[in-house]
Amino acid sequence: MPGDENTIVFGSRSGPIISVCISTVFGYGSGANLNHAMNMRRLLLISIAVTLCGSPSGAASADGKLRIICFGAHPDDCELQAGGVAAMWAAKGHKVKLVSVTNGDIGHWREAGGPLALRRAEEVRKADKILGVTSQVLDIHDGELLPTIENRRLITRLIREWNADIVMGPRPNDYHPDHRYTGVLVQDAAYMVTVPFFCPDVPYLKHNPVFLYYPDRFQKPNPFQPDIAISIDPVIEKKLDALDTLESQFYEGGANGSAELIPSDPAKQQERKREVRAGFAKRNEDLGQRFRAKLTDFYGADKGGSVKYAEAFEVCEYGRSPSSQELKELFPFFGE
User: Fold this and answer.
1) H or E stretch covering 268
2) 134: pLDDT confidence band, cut at 50, 70 and 90?
3) Number of domain units in the chain
4) Is the pLDDT of residue 287 over 70?
5) Residues of 197-213 as b/e, b for ≥16 C-beta within 10 angstroms?
6) Cis preceding-peptide flag for 221 (omega within 30 of 0)
7) Is the distance from CB of 311 to CB of 85 less than 8 angstroms?
């Protein structure tokens, strides 16, 4: 009962004093109950840690800054899908982390293994420095990601450790198994991040973050439906500069590239780089056209109609369901 000094309150910073029967919890009694008593002792110690360390997550952390964590399957996915908004959040002092769930060690037509993994980690380090964000590449083999309990715990811990207000990831509808399973793992973490005794070694979140999907063009079993679209016109050059550093994937073509993509003539090399950069600019321009109606919903007809480059996101219904006003607070760019 609330107010009873003998009540153990799980998952709260404040509450009644914890008082238990020592002989029961710590195993004094019959030998037949020893194993049970030891298990109870472990649970008590965990519950005390959770009680003292449960961490709140809401619209923003105590310093007024948002905390955003983005997941991609490979070292380039987050930068491609959310590099614009990541740079805009970072410019306002919000904390952004981009996580590659695999190390990308087979994502090239010529290179593979540890050397490629190290190369791609260095590429995203350079890209994320340009964007002004934190990066992390997990040591899981490219092409081998599975939605295991261990990986669910891994993603859950990362979200909790970042104390995230916003979590981004791909939808689980995709041609690539790593993309699909990254989406599944992020979905599975939505709600589990609030469960005290799932991964009790890391303080749980008292409020579920807003989980968001990146856009795609897959139609089955259901198409992407944007809940918010953001103009990235102010940072498009910064985003393109960041993507320029991911040479193994874009300039050299990644797993499906070839030597023919890399000219030996310096002038043609520069032309190739300009083509790649223009292609990514066109990609974000196409998103602006595709989601024009949503841009005008948030920016108004005049400004929304003039946006050239955009990124868009869909709310995952497994996390917190934000109102339009809360979305504007989480994406504080509409007055600019």
Assistant:
1) helix 266-290
2) very high
3) 2
4) yes
5) ebbbebbbbbebbbbbb
6) yes
7) yes
Compute the distance between CA of residue 94 and CA of residue 64 in angstroms, rounded to an integer: 9
Helix, strand or coil for residue 212?
strand
Does residue 7 surpass a pLDDT of 90?
Answer: no
Task: Round to whole Å and give the CA distance between 41 and 214.
Answer: 44
Rounded to whole angstroms, how far apart are CA atoms 165 and 190? 12
Name the DSSP letter for residue 142: T
Token couple for 206: 């008292």
What residues make up the domain containing 47? Answer: 1-53
**pLDDT tens sequence across 9-18:** 223 333 332 2
| Strand order, beta sheet including 310-315 | 134-137, 95-100, 67-72, 166-169, 210-213, 310-315, 228-231
230: three-class secondary structure by DSSP: strand
Sign of CA dihedral 49, 51, 52, 58: positive
Instruction: Record the pTM.
Output: 0.82
- Convert 224-258 to b/e letters by CB count within 10 Å (16 or more is b): bebbbbbbbbebbebbbbbbbbbbbbbbbbbbebe
Instruction: Describe the chain by its helix, strand, coil percentages, rounded to 5.
Output: 45, 10, 45
Selection from 188, 189, 211, 193 nearest residue 56 by Cα: 193
Residue listed under structure tokens 């868009």: 312
The reply to whether 336 falls in a domain is no
Same domain for 203 and 259, yes or no, is: yes
* Same-domain check for residues 47 and 191: no
Q: What is the amino acid identity at position 257?
A: G
* SS3 assignment, position 312: strand
User: What average pLDDT does the structure give for the chain?
Assistant: 86
Token look-up 């760019």 returns 333
For residues 184 and 149, the answer to whether their CB atoms sit within 8 Å is: no
**Which is higher by pLDDT, 227 or 17?**
227
Do 45 and 76 lie in one domain? The reply is no
